[in-house]
Amino acid sequence: MKKSKLIIIYAILLLVLFGCGGGEEKGQQQEIKSKDKAPDSLKDLSSGMDDILKSLSDIERLSLDIPLSEDGEKKQEKPGEEQPPGGGQGGNQEKQSSDGGGQEGQGQGGQQSQGGGQQDQQGQQGQQGQEQQKQTPDEKKNEQIKSKWEEIQKKLDEIHPHWNSFEAEGQKKGATKEAGDNFETSFNKMTKAIEAKNIIEIYDYTSQSLSNLKPFYDLYLDDIGGDLSLLKYAAYQGYTRALLGDLEGAANALSNREENINKIRLKLTDEKEKENVEKITLSVSDFKDSLAENSRMLFMIKKDIVIENIKALE
Prior knowledge:
It contains 14 helices and no strands. It is an all-alpha fold. The longest helix is centred in the middle third of the chain and has 37 residues, at 137-173. The chain is globular, with a radius of gyration of 29 Å.
């Protein structure tokens, strides 16, 4: 009897312990779910402008005969665009041989019909491959630049609806009319700069637009997007002013960013993410120090490193 009572008491204790643990776990899940983060419409708007600036950087590199980064080269590649010497003809002959082997056993008339059609198609492909191989370096560069401008225009068409979607949502969350007007102004100027293909103005107004997203991100207490947007603004403004010869203005744009960096650090819990914050701090400082060298390529590299470190936290 005494033993049975002990077993019952032990079972009750186990139920109480597991019940409390389960309740605590549910509480933690609710806490995670209740984090106040920006909606997809705002994030898509921001990332779309990032993509525009990345394509713009690729255009600048191509114009200056500076090799593209690996990401830029991958985006530029198209199926069948690059073939090794003779690849257009040799590859087609291999394919023809393979196709011919696979067609054995079919009717001879069908074989001849299919073979003739394949030869015509393969001949056209080979001719296209030869024409591409005949492109001069300048022609290839101009084609790549044209493709990048098309990417920018396509992305611009995509992000205007994102702003329209978020605008109503932001007002419900408490966004002010002034914040909306400020963003609209820079966003419209960015659009006109893209229409004119003015590289300096695109850098300027797109980075201003990113900066003007901060009041919207700040409506969501757990989101670091607003401070990240200001750090991007600092990097692009520092770069733009350096290109214009305003090294003092570039230094000012890159200075006094500790408050933004500290706010980001306070909202992060992952140690690896905190390491990335330190990388941002160092890369901004390195960019500022590089201004004394007055080298466009150096400015470009330092700017890109800052942006890569910022994007590692998104």
